[in-house]
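User: Fold this, then the next.

Assistant: Folding the first:
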Amino acid sequence: MLILQTGREGFTFIEVLIVIIIIGIVSSLIIPSFGLTLSGIEDRLVREKTINLFKQARAEAITDRNKQKIRISDNKVYYQFSKGEELIIKDGIKRIETRGISKNEIIYYPDGTCSGGEIIFILQNNNDFLIRLNKIYGTAEVEFL
């Protein structure tokens, strides 16, 4: 027995074209927000790495009972761990400015204090933040500018 189907199967060219246009419009609205999100993630990564570095240097100064130095040069942050390996923070940083920091070195002492000062980080996307180093407690506090 032969069955004849009435109606149509598939989509017309116009229907497919309309769906493609809708997808394009939605994509053009969503994709730029991903760029902003990635930029925010990179900013947060630089801040977190830097703050963790200051915490690490303070902890090593206390546990090893030796001074620890963090050096700022050529818009990079340098730290040499007690075991000899060096950490350099440079990605995402456009410029670093220091205030109240002698010889561009932050020194952490075995009693947990530090030499103090302020560091302004200007990032590649022109966002910036300040790290304020408390001399007495050796803590690093972040302030968004």
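Now the next one, as you asked:
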Amino acid sequence: MNVRTAKLIAFALVVAAAALRLPERVMLLAASAQAENQITIANNKFEPQTITVVEGATVTWVNKEGLHTVNADDGSFTSKALNAGDNFSHQFAKAGKYPFHCTFHGSKGGHKMSGTVVVVKKK
């Protein structure tokens, strides 16, 4: 299953759960059904800028153009310099907020090229 198909399936499950007003945990399960949580790097920005995943999920940053890095503001993860076509993955074991930035085009604290991974507890 490719990433796009997984995202479409997850989206459909979230919409169905919301329409039926099922508990939040069902919606989280639908979101975690994605085969991969992906952030695209292009045009000197991360897209999406903020992503929410469940504990244990792996997030993959895919660089579409230029030279960039992915560095946690707190130093908990750091990529090598990524050329176009390269990617970097990190697994998030604990709930919390994990701000990150590109050392070439952004900085700690959400300045310029930056983003956040929000990790929620499994229910």
